[in-house]
Amino acid sequence: MAETEAELRQGIVATCRSMAEQGLNQGTAGNVSARFGEGLLITPSGLPYEEMTPDDIVPMDMEGRADHALSPSSEWRFHRDILRARPDVAAIVHAHPTYCTAFAMCRKDIPAAHYMIAAAGGPTVRCGGYALFGTEELSQRALEALQDRTCCLLANHGMIATGPSLAKALWLAVELETLCRQYAVALQVGRPHILSEAEVAEAMERFKSYGPRPKVG
């Protein structure tokens, strides 16, 4: 059943607060969006999550027009462009968690050092090239890094996680930060063994039924 606008607004606020509670973000950094109707709903710019209410969520159309007292997130462009280019995506979480951002600062892809790489939709998590935040160029870099993937890093910036729902996008954001933390520790311990393409493909097949599910009954 499709979620109502009120449910999506509340879901975006809850996702933002959960990001902060789980250490994915801080202050007013990061942003969240969800597909709604012919456009999207997105977090406003510069408003602390603890002060945010469902009425503060900004509606936008796919032309980038917003009709709200608050300005949309400065990153609205890549949210809009991802939703426009990817019909499989219904929600997007963008954040600057420590380990994801550390690898992004080093401009490094994350290889298949753990089977959870399957959640990314392929054998790597790509790090997209650098561009100034809020720009069309950054949006293009994000789309390139997300080709055939569900998440990516952005050079010298942070990460993007997508999903068919807010719950799945947030789950993926947490899993990506965990994967980056584990890989960082493994690099300190020694030389991580990288799974083969066949092993990753096997894990991806299993992942078709993996991840958070709505409660039934």
Automatic annotation (TrEMBL):
InterPro entries: Aldolase_class_II_sugar_metab, Aldolase_II/adducin_N, Aldolase_II/adducin_N_sf. GO terms for biological process: pentose catabolic process. Keywords: Lyase, Metal-binding. One of its GO terms (molecular function) is metal ion binding. One of its GO terms (cellular component) is cytosol. Residues 10-184 form the Class II aldolase/adducin N-terminal domain. This is Fuculose phosphate aldolase.
